[in-house]
């Protein structure tokens, strides 16, 4: 990667990492009012790093469809996570909230990659 793409990767990755970690921390610490131990904190940092790394890679590689759908999946996932946290669900709200974040971000990732692949095939077919 050239210098400009490397800078864009790190910038996009850092922004998504900070926002993701902040939203996870805010949800668990403030909404659920649970204390965070080292193991949980490490898991949340790792999850936010994964989200940031994927978003940064999509941005740096100019995969607009993948970035858009992955970002949409993250937004829906965080909304669903907070919804489950607030609803409570008799003690299962925390687990179902984090699980819904995984599910929606995974769906966004898969949809984005599939859409990007189809777009690439269509563009390639038009050239040849």
Features:
single chain; 128 residues; mainly alpha; 4 helices; 0% strand
Largest sheet, in brief, is: none
Runs with pLDDT <50, length 5+?
none
Total DSSP E strands: 0
Strand content: under 5%
Summarize the helices and strands and which ones pair or pack.
Elements: H1 3-31, H2 38-60, H3 64-87, H4 93-127
Outline the structure in words.
The chain is mainly α. The chain has four helices and no strands. The chain is flat. The mean pLDDT is 92.
Give a brief rundown of this model:
Helix content is 87%, strand content 0%.
């Amino acid at each position: 990667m050239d210098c400009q793409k490397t800078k864009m990767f790190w910038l996009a990755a850092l922004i998504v990492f900070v926002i993701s970690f902040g939203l996870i921390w805010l949800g668990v610490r403030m909404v659920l009012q649970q204390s965070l131990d080292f193991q949980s904190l490490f898991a949340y940092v790792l999850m936010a790093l994964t989200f940031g790394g994927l978003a940064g890679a999509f941005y740096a590689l100019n995969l607009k469809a993948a970035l858009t759908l992955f970002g949409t999946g993250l937004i829906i996932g965080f909304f669903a996570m907070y919804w489950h946290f607030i609803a409570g669900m008799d003690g299962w709200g925390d687990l179902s909230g984090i699980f819904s974040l995984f599910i929606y971000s995974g769906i966004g990732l898969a949809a984005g990659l599939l859409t990007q692949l189809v777009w690439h095939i269509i563009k390639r077919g038009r050239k040849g």
